[in-house]
Design a protein that fits this description.
Blueprint (H helix, E strand, L loop, with lengths): L1 H39 L6 H10 L18 H8 L7 E6 L5 H11 L5 E5 L4 H12 L22 H23 L3 E6 L8 H20 L2 E7 L2 H8 L5 E6 L4 H16 L5 H11 L3 H8 L4 H20 L11 H23 L4 E2 L3 E2 L3 E3 H8 L5 H6 L3 E3 L4 E4 L2 H11 L4 H20 L6 H4 L3 E6 L5 E8 L5 E4 L1
Parallel strand pairs: 1-4, 1-5, 2-3, 3-4
Antiparallel strand pairs: 6-7, 8-10, 9-10, 11-12, 12-13
Helix pairs in contact: 1-6, 3-4, 5-6, 6-7, 9-10, 9-11, 10-12, 11-12, 12-16, 13-16, 13-17
């Protein structure tokens, strides 16, 4: 019996020790391979480059790739940031949609073949943001961990924000190892930050990313780059920033815009345009790269310019046109917002007429603008301007200047204000809004006895009281009193 018991105990002991040793080795090996995969994610080559190359229809490592690129004045700064040469700071790229922010980042990544770079697109849903971050870092969030097959609570049973924190913890370990080997920080780019919702979850996510950015910038571990179209992201980051650098991306100046249009036209049609044609296109749509690219692809460039202006005007009118003095009181809230937008657009047109110059022969268009606090004063509301910025109707620059979102949008403002009777129509709308608000603040009391022809006799009595006597005429003409 003792021999059988000893044999059984030895067998169980060997199996238990073997199982424990195997689990320990698997756990350590899993952690090692997690860091190994994340390290490989920062090796040269990036799927983002392949996708961008497909859009350009030329391999990203081709010597001809640079010929399809339109350089911007800020490209040299972006190249240094992406190459890890700018240390001690994290960066916010702020500019209107279509100015070339993402394209500059992709071009800078192409020049170093994605070495030490990870890039992801932001999203309003934290779960989708988590998945995209995991894809960029090649991190599975322990979803492939074998412990999940057991009944015990797995490490994935948590919120998306905690998962993002875990991924950034792993990235920090990778950055520490890589700095010893390479001597420069990793670069993590979060594109389209404006897609994150401006709510509590979105603010928590931005705060989490900014805390890491501040910490990593101080230690020269990871340089984080945030890319946004909307001003509210800058306001949110500004509250806690100590090491943030802001790079404002605006429309191209006239000389570079004309050069870009010429290169685009050569790319698509192998056609050399006359200087006066190039200047005419610039006068119509300005230096927005997305507009210039769209015009260059068209056979009739002038008609496409007019289409862009009509499209911008239609977008503005569909979002915030006013309904005049006959509007129903049910649309009161929407019309407050619409009237404020139209008032601001009218003020920009009026300021443009007061400016000494709205067009410089060298730099091109000079759009009228107001400081943000003045724009709020003109609109008589402080909460509407940022919503209008999100809709790309107006633009708030990094210097807190409010202007039209583009040159075609400013042209649309001019056409709208120039309509016959526009200012009277706007004033009628404002008066109607004021009347509806007045009705909402007024309480009407109806004395039914007076409606029937009676009268009230009111007199003050001793002690500070008031006596009201009703005088009502009966059929015989006699008065009937009651108090």
């Amino acid at each position: 019996m003792l021999e059988a018991a000893a044999t059984s105990f030895a067998s169980i002991f060997v199996v238990g020790v073997g199982f424990a040793l195997t689990a320990y080795v698997y756990h350590k090996g899993y952690k090692y391979f997690v860091l190994k995969k994340m390290t490989n994610a920062f090796e040269p080559g990036d799927p983002v480059l392949e996708l961008a190359a497909m859009g350009r229809k030329v391999p990203h490592d081709s010597p001809d790739a640079a010929a399809y690129w339109i350089p911007r004045p800020e490209q040299e700064i972006v190249d240094r940031i992406v190459a890890g040469e700018e240390t001690g700071h994290y960066h916010l790229f702020l500019g209107d949609k279509g100015t070339g922010k993402s394209s500059m980042l992709l071009e800078a990544i192409r020049k170093i073949d994605g070495d030490g770079i990870a890039m992801l697109e932001a999203h309003a849903d934290l779960e989708i943001f988590r998945i995209r971050l995991g894809k960029a870092l090649d991190y599975e969030f322990h979803e492939d961990y074998i412990g999940g097959y057991f009944s015990e609570r797995g490490p994935r049973d948590t919120t998306a924000l905690l998962d993002i924190e875990r991924a950034l913890n792993k990235l920090e370990k990778v950055a520490l190892l890589r700095r010893k080997q390479v001597g420069r920080p990793l670069v993590l780019i979060v594109n389209q930050m404006h897609l994150i919702r401006d709510d509590e979850d979105g603010k928590d996510l931005i705060e989490l990313l900014q805390q890491r950015a501040e910490q990593w910038a101080a230690a020269n571990l990871v340089t984080m780059v945030f890319n946004s179209d909307d001003y509210w992201v800058y306001e949110r980051l500004k509250q806690l920033s100590t090491r943030m650098e802001v790079l404002s991306i605006v429309d191209l100046p006239k000389t570079q815009a004309i050069m870009a249009l010429r290169n685009y036209r050569l790319k698509y049609f192998q056609e050399h345009l006359a200087p006066e044609v190039l200047e005419d296109v610039y006068d119509r749509v300005g230096g927005r790269l997305s507009f210039l690219n769209r015009v260059a692809k068209s056979r009739d460039m002038v008609e496409t310019c007019n289409d862009i202006i009509r499209s911008e005007k239609t977008w503005f009118l569909n979002q915030c046109w006013i309904l005049g003095g006959e509007m129903d009181d049910d649309v009161m809230d929407q019309q407050k917002w619409a009237a404020a937008a139209v008032v601001l657009a009218t003020a920009l047109v009026d300021k443009e007429s007061e400016m000494d110059s709205t067009y410089d022969p060298e730099t091109g268009h000079v759009l009228p603008s107001f400081p943000l606090h003045i724009a709020q004063q003109i609109m008589t509301r402080a909460d509407f301007v940022r919503a209008l910025d999100r809709l790309n109707l107006f633009s708030i620059t990094s210097r807190a200047q409010v202007r039209a979102s583009s040159v075609p949008m400013q042209r649309a403002f001019r056409e709208m204000v120039a309509q016959d009777g526009f200012r009277e129509y706007l004033q009628a709308t404002i008066d109607r809004i004021a009347a509806i608000e007045s009705l909402g603040r007024t309480r009407e009391l109806v004395a039914k006895d007076l409606v029937l022809g009676a009268t009230y006799e009111i007199r003050q009595i001793k002690g500070g009281g008031v006596e009201v006597t009703l005088k009502q005429k009966e059929e015989g003409g006699e008065e009937k009193k009651g108090s």
